[in-house]
């Protein structure tokens, strides 16, 4: 009963205090609501954040989790039989990948086309093609890609003819018929060489997840259920067929069977919702789930010669580091916002205690114990904490819905607005932890406050100078003890976990350790910078207020000194927040551009005509040369690159670099390059560690000098491994290794690079098979009889540097280039725009998320500033009354506090900028090492300027109005103000 009465009394007292100090209560409530909401939302978004990178991977592979194909190109898959063996739903396809297309009513030449007969309903059932907006196509209808439509001059409603539809597949259809009927029917290839005429009902511009965006340019889509009907119509229209034995039986067979019985591809998705499989930033966990599913399918199918591909996993593999870094960033957001909120509540509680010292002194005189004081403070915090947790969790539903809609709009897939159980648990934990951690210092102040000082109303409580005398050496230094304890625990944990992460190659654990170190690093720098706070404040006063009177400048400095202890919390918050914002902006930019940089670095330019490196096919260089010469107005430059040497020499098994003693050897990829290669490729990815600068020529031009014909461009790795240098006396061996013919040549390096556009060069041993660039004549010499003529050099790549970004002009060039290579399915064009759309969607989404986090951090800091400045102004009521009595105008007193707030924020901002820039730079260097991609450090000038302008506005709002309200009171009333 006694405890119940006390609780009721403290609750009543807390409610009264909340009404009396509405601003403090509102700030505390809002800060808790914001942090609880953000914690709930961040954790939910963190759970679904891998969707962003899943979308990037799907852009490169299509939304295909598992793809089954036959190991023998002359055999196909029976969808019905496969579904009898496995429990999963499947989506069959018949793909004619080396076909031709032409316009029925146009005079254009035919073009290469990839014709996909798909089952739209089944693919929708397995969640393949989330954004695919079309209904199943009807008999005789098809859709084609925009680039193919431009090449054929086709518009909606035109007819398109399709031929070269894989004769082997049609033979298999006929053989299936004869096998089922157990009859012998003669056939000829003429029965399977025919043309389909379809009406183009729509033209699309992207793959919609059905196929990879980069391979959609020659795509034709039709409905699988209509394939046999189209063939049946062709048979009935052919005068030859009715005379064939078994004609009517074959028509019946086509009417009663499905083309899915001879599928070229069977597609299977992960369990619904399929995106849940990818809801983790740990690539190993995703790989485990997908490979387990694929292995189970193979086991169920038994001995059938089925090949299993995992397209999305192949594309996610190079993104695994990026997803882990994103997880670290989102975890860091939660930690920093929690820290900011703790500091804010700590500041509010401290201000509450400092502004009520007299009142608390009277309560203590009336007999309230220190334990009761603690209970009173806890009760007071629970008044705003419990409602904040409830409101925050409910608000998270709305915030999650908004973010889910953003996901839906940007990447085509949303998520449930209901916060995850982990998110709710973390939000509740953070909600209760904030006041507990923040209340420790105010509680200590209650315990150790002097009762006489609390009841003294004739002196100000501000202390510019504090002197503490300790009379015994046995006094325990609590700060030192706690600091020592925390650092020992931190070091012990890192000491144990770091070797575990390295030995098990657990990247998530390793980067989690980096996160802990990073947070300690960031907080340590903020605390270190506090030692320079006074210097920054004095420098800011001299820099911005040199035109003010010396008396005003002196009062600004004195006010800052008197309020230093209270202002320190605000300084820490702003410095930490701004450092965090700059760090977050830099890292977000790196995460969002990582995929684009990887694409650009690996291809070297934005448009590449290439031959499949796994085949012996070469580019028709003469015809391509004619095309690029006609587009001199939009092509800045272009360069030729030969096929890799080992692909040209039939009997060669390897191309090796060796030292002269032949003790060490390394596989390399030897290419011949044009002399203008450096002028064509992206220069920002070319990082040369050592070269000869005396010639004045570019690196690729040096290959064509008399000395350069004996030299090569190579990776920095080999400089260390083979002990080489850029010197005429530094030589090595190039060996073309073949079982019956070994060819050696002595060469020397002309330059070493740790990165090179379009080629693999590195200083890290993980990339041991790197590119080795020589002049085309040198490459011919190495190739010997396989490239004896200069007009007969087998080219593998045509790299084109564009001089325009006009999409229509580039499409025209693309169309003409594609027409030249359309005869061969192993020749293709890589267009940067095909992969850029997906990356831009992900970038827009992440930019929005990080902008919201920045706004929330600034809100929390503004709350702290309002609280501190209100307390500072109220605490100096007597000083203000004295200034008023001596004739200082009201507006000048208000401006004095505006100046104080500005100096406080500006100096804290400077510290935050230096800390954030340094930490972001170190993190960017670390990520460059992980990804082995040179990425520039981009300082976020725009957001920094915006934060500074916002700080000035915040300084004015937080100080001008409270000071104006106070100075408006009569001088006598100000003198009687208690604090």
From TrEMBL:
Subcellular location: Cell membrane
Keyword check for Ribosomal protein: no
Domain ABC3 transporter permease C-terminal positions: 333-450, 852-970
Recorded superkingdom: Eukaryota
TM ranges: 27-47, 321-353, 374-403, 423-443, 480-503, 509-528, 572-592, 849-874, 895-921, 941-961
InterPro entries according to UniProt: ABC3_permease_C
Topology relative to the membrane: Multi-pass membrane protein
Gene Ontology CC annotation, any one: plasma membrane
UniProt keywords, alphabetically: Cell membrane, Membrane, Transmembrane, Transmembrane helix
Main localization (coarse): membrane
Signal peptide: none
Record's protein name: ABC3 transporter permease C-terminal domain-containing protein
């Amino acid at each position: 009963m006694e405890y119940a009465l006390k609780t009721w009394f403290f609750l009543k007292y807390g409610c009264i205090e909340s009404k009396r100090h509405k601003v403090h209560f509102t700030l505390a409530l809002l800060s808790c609501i914001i942090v609880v909401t953000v914690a709930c939302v961040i954790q939910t978004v963190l759970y679904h954040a891998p969707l962003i990178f899943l979308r990037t991977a799907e852009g490169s592979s299509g939304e295909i989790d598992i793809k089954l194909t036959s190991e023998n190109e002359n055999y196909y898959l029976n969808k019905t039989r496969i579904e009898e063996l496995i429990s999963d739903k499947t989506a069959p396809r018949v793909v004619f990948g080396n076909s031709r297309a032409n316009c029925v009513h146009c005079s254009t030449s035919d073009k290469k086309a990839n014709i996909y007969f798909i089952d739209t309903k089944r693919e929708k059932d397995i969640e393949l093609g989330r954004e695919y907006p079309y209904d199943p196509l009807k008999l005789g209808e098809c859709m084609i890609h925009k680039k193919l439509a431009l090449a054929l001059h086709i518009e909606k409603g035109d007819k398109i003819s399709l031929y070269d539809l894989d004769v082997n597949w049609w033979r298999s259809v006929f053989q299936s018929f004869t096998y089922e009927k157990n009859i012998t029917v003669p056939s000829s290839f003429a029965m399977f060489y025919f043309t389909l005429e379809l009406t183009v009902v729509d033209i699309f511009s992207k793959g919609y997840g059905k196929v990879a965006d980069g391979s959609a340019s020659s795509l034709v889509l039709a409905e699988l259920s209509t394939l046999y009907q189209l063939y049946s119509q062709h048979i009935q229209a052919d005068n030859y067929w009715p005379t064939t034995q078994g004609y009517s039986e074959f028509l019946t067979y086509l009417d009663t069977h499905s083309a899915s019985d001879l599928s070229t591809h069977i597609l299977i998705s992960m369990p619904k919702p399929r995106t849940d499989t990818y809801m983790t930033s740990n690539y190993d966990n995703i790989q485990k789930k997908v490979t387990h599913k694929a292995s189970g399918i193979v086991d169920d199918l038994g001995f059938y010669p089925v090949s299993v591909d995992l397209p999305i996993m192949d594309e996610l593999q190079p993104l695994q580091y990026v997803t882990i870094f994103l997880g670290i960033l989102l975890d860091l957001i939660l930690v920093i916002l929690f820290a900011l909120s703790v500091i804010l509540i700590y500041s509010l509680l401290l201000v509450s205690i400092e502004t009520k010292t007299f009142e608390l002194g009277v309560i203590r005189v009336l007999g309230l114990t220190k334990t009761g004081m603690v209970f009173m403070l806890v009760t007071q915090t629970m008044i705003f904490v419990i409602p904040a947790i409830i409101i925050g969790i409910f608000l998270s539903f709305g915030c999650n819905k908004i973010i889910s809609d953003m996901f839906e709009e940007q990447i085509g897939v949303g998520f449930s607005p209901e916060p995850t159980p982990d998110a709710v648990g973390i939000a509740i934990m953070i909600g209760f932890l904030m006041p507990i951690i923040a209340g420790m210092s105010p509680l200590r102040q209650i315990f150790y406050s002097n009762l006489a000082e609390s009841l003294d109303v004739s002196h100000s409580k501000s202390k510019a100078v504090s002197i503490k005398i300790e009379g015994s050496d046995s006094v325990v230094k609590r700060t030192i003890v706690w600091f020592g304890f925390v650092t020992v625990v931190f070091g012990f944990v890192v000491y144990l976990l770091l070797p575990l992460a390295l030995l098990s190659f657990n990247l998530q654990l390793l980067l989690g350790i980096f996160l802990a170190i990073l947070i300690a690093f960031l907080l340590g720098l903020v605390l270190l910078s506090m030692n320079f706070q006074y210097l920054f404040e004095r420098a800011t006063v001299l820099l911005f207020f040199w035109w003010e009177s010396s008396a005003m400048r002196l009062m600004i400095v004195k006010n800052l000194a008197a309020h230093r202890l209270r202002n320190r919390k605000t300084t820490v918050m702003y410095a930490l927040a701004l450092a965090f914002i700059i760090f977050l902006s830099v890292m977000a930019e790196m995460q969002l551009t990582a995929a684009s940089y990887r694409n650009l670095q690996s291809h070297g330019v934005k448009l590449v005509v290439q031959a499949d490196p796994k085949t012996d096919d070469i580019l028709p260089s003469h015809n391509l040369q004619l095309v690029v010469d006609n587009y001199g107005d939009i092509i800045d430059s272009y360069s030729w690159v030969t096929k890799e040497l080992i692909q040209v020499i039939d009997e060669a098994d390897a191309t090796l670099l060796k030292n002269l003693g032949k003790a060490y050897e390394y596989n390399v990829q030897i290419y011949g390059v044009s002399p203008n290669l450096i002028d064509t490729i992206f220069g920002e990815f070319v990082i040369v560690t050592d070269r000869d600068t005396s010639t004045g020529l570019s690196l690729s031009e040096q290959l064509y000098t008399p000395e350069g014909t004996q030299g090569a461009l190579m990776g920095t790795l080999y400089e260390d491994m083979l002990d080489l240098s850029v010197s005429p006396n530094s030589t090595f061996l190039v060996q073309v290794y073949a079982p019956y013919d070994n060819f050696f040549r002595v060469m020397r390096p002309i330059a070493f690079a740790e990165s090179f556009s379009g080629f693999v060069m590195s200083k890290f041993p993980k990339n041991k098979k790197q590119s080795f660039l020589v002049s085309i004549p040198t490459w011919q010499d190495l190739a010997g009889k396989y490239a004896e003529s200069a007009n007969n050099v087998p080219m593998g790549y045509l790299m084109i540097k564009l001089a325009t970004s006009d999409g229509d002009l580039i499409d025209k060039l693309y169309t003409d280039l594609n027409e030249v290579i359309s005869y061969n399915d192993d020749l293709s064009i890589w267009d940067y725009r095909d992969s850029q759309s997906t990356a831009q969607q992900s970038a827009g989404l992440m930019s929005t998320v990080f902008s919201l986090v920045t706004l929330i951090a600034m809100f929390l800091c503004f709350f702290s500033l309002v609280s501190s400045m209100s307390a500072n102004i109220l605490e100096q009521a007597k000083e203000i009354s004295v200034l008023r009595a001596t004739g200082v105008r009201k507006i000048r007193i208000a401006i004095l506090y505006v100046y104080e707030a500005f100096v406080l924020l500006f100096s804290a901002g400077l510290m935050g900028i230096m800390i954030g820039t340094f930490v972001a730079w170190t993190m960017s260097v670390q990520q460059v090492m992980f990804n082995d991609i040179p990425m520039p450090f981009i300082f976020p000038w725009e957001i920094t300027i915006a934060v500074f302008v916002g700080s000035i506005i915040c300084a004015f709002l937080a100080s001008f109005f409270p000071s104006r309200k106070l100075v408006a009171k009569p001088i006598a009333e100000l003198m009687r103000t208690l604090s």
